[in-house]
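ok trying this again, last paste got cut off
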Amino acid sequence: MNAEHLTLEAKMSNFACSFHLLQSAVEGKPWDADALDCWAAETPLSHGEQVTARFVLAVWNPNHSWKCGKFDLMEALRIWDAEHHAAFLAWAREPWWA
């Protein structure tokens, strides 16, 4: 299906799955920002998983006070691996928000 015909929730699920650190939390599940926030806030995670969840949640709603914390771009760029940089840059080339 063409990306412009996807629902916003399907776009967010695909977007979140583009970050391999989030795949176990979101892959094959309907998009649920609150569930991702709880996962990131309440599960023992790597720092990269937490920062990546914060980024995806910031795309979903940058004005919401997420339990897992506020996204910091400089922190993310410092800790993300090349695959995460590529996923971020793909979004940054044509950014969209939920």
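PB: full thing came through this time. The chain has a mean pLDDT of 92.
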